[in-house]
Amino acid sequence: MTVAALTVFSPSGVVARPAALRLAVRRLAALGFVSTLDEAALARHQRFAGDDAVRLAALHRVARAAPSVAMAARGGYGLSRLLDAIDWPLLARAATLGTRWVGHSDFTALQLGLLAHAGAPSWAGPMALDDFGRSDADGGVDDVTAACFAEAMSGELEAVGWRTEAGFDGLQCRGLLWGGNLSMLCALVGTPHLPRPARVKGGLLFLEDVNEHPYRVERLLLQLAQAGLLQTQKALLLGDFGRVRPTPLDRGYRLAAVVQHLRGLPGMPPILSGLPFGHIATKVSLPVGRRAQLLVDGRDVLLGW
Question: What is the DSSP annotation of the chain?
Answer without folding.
Answer: ---EEEEEE-SSB--S-HHHHHHHHHHHHHTTEEEEE-TTTT--BTTBSS-HHHHHHHHHHHHHH--SEEEES--SS-HHHHGGG--HHHHHHHHHTT-EEEE-GGGHHHHHHHHHHH---EEE---IIIIIS--GGGT-S-HHHHHHHHHHHHT---EEEEE--SS-TT-EEEEEEEEEEHHHHHHHTTSTTSPPHHHHTT-EEEEE-SS--HHHHHHHHHHHHHTTSSTT-SEEEE----S----TTTTT--HHHHHHHHHTSTTPPPEE---S-SSSSS---EEETEEEEEEEETTEEEEE-
